[in-house]
Amino acid sequence: QGPVRFDWVFTLADATDDETNPTIPWPSTRNQINAGTVTISGWEPQQDGQCGTKNFDPLVLPKGILATEDPILRARSAAYAESFRRRATETLLGEKASFDTEQGATHDAN
């Protein structure tokens, strides 16, 4: 099998588009820009991979790019941070760590 490729396409909003509600599709007539092609030519196992110590935060943006007030986007930042915290705790305590989400505590599942 060869590499997987997909176009990175940006759809440009106009003044009437709701940028805070991702459940409302924008009209297909909006201008689009193809920013390039992403090519994935290999993979790495999740366990012990290079990304294990990284936390993706969709609100860490480059200068000139601003986040919308989309509440889903805002919730993702906290959810991804919690996921990273849990993965990091599992690494430190071992695979059998479990989580008490109400207390924010961890304990051995055995």
From TrEMBL:
GO terms for molecular function: heme binding. InterPro entries: Catalase_sf (IPR020835). This is Catalase core domain-containing protein.
